[in-house]
Every structure is written in C-alpha cells, then in structure tokens.
Prior knowledge:
Layout: E1 14-18, H1 25-36, E2 40-42, H2 49-56, H3 63-79, E3 85-88, H4 94-103, E4 108-113, H5 116-124, H6 136-142, E5 152-156, H7 161-179
Parallel strand pairs: 1-3, 1-4, 2-3, 4-5
The structure holds adenosine-5'-diphosphate and 6-phosphogluconic acid (6PG).
Amino acid sequence: MSAPPSPAAPGAPLVVVMGVSGSGKSTVGAALAQRLGVPYADADDFHPDANIAKMSAGHALDDTDRGPWLDAVGAWLADHDASGGVMSCSALKVAYRDQLRHHAPRAELVHLEGTREVIARRQASRPGHFMPASLLDSQFATLEPLGPHEPGQVISVDQSVDAIVQAYVDQHTTTESRTR
Length: 180
Ligand SMILES: Nc1ncnc2c1ncn2[C@@H]1O[C@H](COP(=O)(O)OP(=O)(O)O)[C@@H](O)[C@H]1O
Ligand SMILES: O=C(O)[C@H](O)[C@@H](O)[C@H](O)[C@H](O)COP(=O)(O)O
C-alpha cells in the first residue's frame, strides 16, 4: 500500500487585518505584507460602487450589502492560499469572519484594537477618504471583537505601525514554534 500524501508544507502567513474604520488596517496591512514579503490587498477596493456610494452618503452597510463583498474578499484569500498574503478588511462580525474562513480556512485574523477616542482622532485626520467620521459609532456598535476561539491576535493600536508589525511577528513566531 502506498504511503498517504504528506500534508502540504505550511505556506507564508495568510492574514486578515481587521478592525473598525480608522483603526489602521490599510496602513498596518501594507506594512505587514512588506515585512512578510507577501502580496497585499485592501478590501475597500472590493466594494461594489453601490456600497461606496452608501457609505459616502453617511449610511452604514448592512449584512446584505456586505455578503457579496465578503465573498469577493474571500476569493482573494483563497487565491493566495499558497503564496500567503495580507488583506485589510473590517470583518466586524464573527459571521463575516466565518464567511472569510469558509473561503480560506487557514486565514488568521489580526484585530487592531483601540479606544473610540484614539481611532476617531486618526480617522478625522485622514484626508480625502470616502468614509465619513459619523459612521464610526455604527462601526463600534457592529464590532464583535476577535474571540479566543478564533485563530489570530489582538494588537493595540496605541503604538507605532512598526511596533504593531513587530508584535505580530513576535507572537506568530512563538505560536509557530509551539505548534512545531
Ligand atoms: N499605529 C498608528 N499610529 C499613528 N497613526 C496611525 C497608525 N495606524 C494608522 N495611522 C493613521 O491613522 C489613519 C487611519 O489609518 P488607516 O490605515 O486608513 O485605517 P483603516 O484602513 O482601518 O481605516 C491614517 O491617517 C493613518 O496614517
Ligand atoms: O464593513 C463595513 O462597514 C466597511 O467595510 C467598513 O468597515 C470599512 O471600514 C469601510 O470600507 C471604510 O474604509 P476604512 O475602513 O478604510 O475606513
């Protein structure tokens, strides 16, 4: 009898950087992808025009708006399963993260956690973005923080981008060596 196929070699990390608007997903996601040497994408670029128009007009998205968008984000993750990659995506609810993990089961989450005060200040100081500051309350109301049963890390936004990236790398390395 032939030996069963050996499991696929573990690939580079496949990461979703999550959090409310203004938490630093795009900034940290791009920096993390560069550090890991993997492709990067921003879920903002996967929204249909109708979603962008709705948010620009000051209305929060609902589950129906987010469903097809999350499938498109999940498809990118699935396409990058072998190479690894980093995606910035709000992924506010557990159900949304389950939807992403359905497409890409090995995806891990990095939740950028911070107070409303700090994040509102950062969001307000960001020029020319379609997302109005008025939607921040609804983002926090919708947010279901990354739970202990979900693979990934919660990292405070109250530190430099470099320090956040380093915190990810340190924790990831520790977890890898523990499971090896
Ligand atoms: N750790 C950080 N420290 C200071 N400023 C930050 C940090 N992370 C992000 N920013 C700034 O905060 C603003 C929001 O970040 P951004 O990456 O656009 O957030 P998101 O993609 O989650 O909406 C930007 O102006 C960005 O430069
Ligand atoms: O699910 C949502 O409500 C949106 O995806 C939202 O969470 C996202 O944050 C916006 O696309 C704004 O973009 P920024 O997060 O870059 O502000």
